[in-house]
Amino acid sequence: MRRRNKVSAEFNMSSLTDIIFLLLIFFMLTSAAIQINIELPESDSRTVAPTDIPVMLTTDGVIKFKGKVTQKSKLRGLISEAKSSSENSENATVTIISQTGVPWKDVADIMEISNSLGMRAIISTQPRK
User: Which of 5, 35, 97, 105 is the most buried (most CB within 10 A)?
Assistant: First the structure.
């Protein structure tokens, strides 16, 4: 009786999983380093919005509340206090004055704070050129 040599139809997956794992690490590291900054919108609207509570953001991370430098952790308390002391507390508006190049996450955080306090938030725009 003759024995037949059977060819193994298996595929070695260890090298493929190593490559996939390395690609996963590469994409995780590079995606954390990428930051998307877009310019603030331009507008030709002539509507003048109330500036009850101005919050200014700069590209170097400085946050100014009513012209005074503050920290992000204190911002919720300051906005809440300004709303309660405002003459028009039911229609108080947070005006976000953001320098071009500020990450949208910072703007969205301030909008979230104002929304949680039951206030409107508007973003200042620059006039069209």
Answer: 97
